[in-house]
Every structure is written in structure tokens, then in C-alpha cells.
Fold this sequence. Notes:
By secondary structure, this protein is mainly α. The chain has one domain (13-86). It is 72% helix and 0% strand. The chain contains four helices and no strands. Helix 2 packs antiparallel against helix 4 (62-92). The N and C termini lie far apart (54 Å). The model has no long low-confidence stretch (mean pLDDT 77).
Amino acid sequence: MGGEKTTVDSFDVDQKQWYRVGGIAALVLGVAYIIIxxxxxQVGAPPTGGGDAWFHYLHGKTxxxxxxxxxxxxxxxxxxxxxxxxxxxxxxxSPFTAPPIPR
Length: 103
């Protein structure tokens, strides 16, 4: 009783590894954004005033803002790369093509 191969089964072992790495990276990315939400809640909303209001606001909160920046900038880019590499073959195997870019 042989069954039909699905799309995932037709990929080679290397592509299955990329799916696994991409899935783990997606989970890391989701956890990183949850951490950012808690860090934002800890520092509160930034002021809308001028420079003096910012100096008073940032006193004692620079470490948290650096953590937010590192989490948002570095972790997002590092974790998004394996995600993109894992789904790229799906787009190349798609019967649909993207519309041409107007110039």
C-alpha cells in the first residue's frame, strides 16, 4: 500500500534540515518579540517633549533601551535569515509567479 509522496517528502534531506532550522528560528523570533513587549512595558512610553524631557526619561533606563534595540535589531535579522532560506524553495516551486514590477 504505497501512498503518494507529499510536497515535503519530495524535497531532499538538506531541505528538510532547512525546514527544521527555519522552524526553530521562527520560534526564537516569536520569543524575542514577546521579550520586547515586556521590556517596553517596563520602561513606559517615551516622552513627546523636547530634549530635556528625554534626558529625564532616559535616566536609569538606557540598559533596557539597549536590550530592546539589540533584541529588535540583531535577533530579528539573525533569526529571519534561516526562515527566508527555508521557505525560498517553496516560492521557486510555485506555479504562480509574481507580477512584474512597474518601472
